[in-house]
Amino acid sequence: MKFVDQIRVHAKAGDGGNGCCSFRREKFVPRGGPDGGDGGRGGDIILVADHDVDSLVALFFEPLIRSKRGGHGKGKDKMGRSSEPTRVKVPIGTIVHRAGQTSHDEVEEEPIADLSEPGQEFILCKGGDGGKGNTHFKSSTNRVPRQVTKGYPGEESWYLFELRTIADIGLVGYPNAGKSTLLQKISAARPKAAPYPFTTLHPIVGVVDLPDYHRATVADIPGLIEGAHDNRGLGHEFLRHIVRCKSLFFVLDMAGSEGRSPIDDYQSLRKELRLYDPTLAAKPFCIIANKMDLPGAEENCKIFQERFPKLTIIPISAETKTGVNTVIDYIAKNVLKPISDEELLVGPVE
Ligand SMILES: Nc1nc2c(ncn2[C@@H]2O[C@H](COP(=O)(O)OP(=O)(O)OP(=O)(O)O)[C@@H](O)[C@H]2O)c(=O)[nH]1
Ligand SMILES: [Mg+2]
């Protein structure tokens, strides 16, 4: 399925129903007073951050969100029906920007919403209030008011929805370094891993269970290459998905199995992050020295450690699962996230 993480959407809440013009008609009351009811409220449009939605693809196929108008007022002082809000599920991590009245208007830089918590709601557009029925216009001088007001229009605008994955840890590395293989081994997520570059085409978040009901989320993004900050490869597209991670794991092919040097890889990855966004380079990080089962890895790792004595280096083989528990321990000690009471009640989800 197509992965969509940025999309322009037009939303229009429901208009309010019109007020009604009506007069009481009863058998023995020939000239009853006004009894036209008010119009109902139009439906709001509400965004809801939902666990089960992982991209904005649904909006790609239907980028126009509408909510129903309120019912018109009726005689006998009956108010028009107010419309139910339209709820739109979006992935957790959706940021909303307003984008003016036409599809190509400039997008405002300051976001108006950041749906970062499961279940979080945001009223995108308010439905219009209903108009007033003619009962409101009765006065001592006008006993037969024919005046009513129309329903108010629902709010409408263009918006830009942008998805920024939220995870505790982001895996960064060259294509084929073994990021997806590692995520498979530490979580229930099953990102595809294969011996060719750019196997991963969009971010995938896995949940790592830790001792004492703690857990952490780890985002696997497509491999970076030199020039990623400048939109080479798939890099740029996805670097923004790790801007909100608390810490980063640099996954390196320590065996240099594709003729590259782990030291060069590390330095150019750091450089790409810095050029893309200095806050990325400032995040806490550690080195995952992967592919330690392959020849040359031990020696490269030693050289690497001598060159960067202050870095935390965790030697592993994601393929054979060696050292993977050390990664989990590291996460438990450094990046923790308690499970909410609500989730505890539901129990573990398969
Ligand atoms: N020998 C060995 N091979 C590994 C190890 N980890 C991963 N691989 C292999 O390396 C290849 C690439 O692994 P992936 O997990 O797809 O790499 P990736 O970093 O996710 O790659 P992209 O998604 O393309 O960025 C696969 O064929 C894996 O089987 C390891 O520890 N040892
Ligand atoms: Mg991958």
Give an account of the 3D structure:
With 350 residues, the protein is of the alpha/beta class. It has 2 domains: 1-163, GTP1/OBG domain (Spo0b-associated Gtp-binding Protein, Chain: A, Distorted Sandwich); 169-346, Rossmann fold (3-Layer(aba) Sandwich), CATH 3.40.50. Helices cover 19% and strands 22% of the residues. It has 8 helices and 14 strands. It has a 6-stranded mixed β-sheet with strand order 10-11-9-12-13-14, sandwiched between helices. Strand 13 (285-290), helix 6 and strand 14 (313-315) form a beta-alpha-beta unit. It starts with 5 loop residues before the first strand and ends with a helix. Mean pLDDT is 88; it is low at 346-350. Bound molecules: guanosine-5'-triphosphate and magnesium ion (MG). Magnesium ion (MG) binds next to helix 2.
Summarize the structure.
With 350 residues, the chain is of the alpha/beta class. It has eight helices and 14 strands. Helices cover 19% and strands 22% of the residues.
Helix vs. strand class = alpha/beta
**Topology-level CATH name of the largest domain:** Rossmann fold
The domain tally reads 2
- Number of separate helices: 8
Features:
alpha/beta, Spo0b-associated Gtp-binding Protein, Chain: A, Rossmann fold, 2 domains, 6-stranded mixed beta sheet, 5-stranded mixed beta sheet, 8 helices, 14 strands, binds guanosine-5'-triphosphate, binds magnesium ion
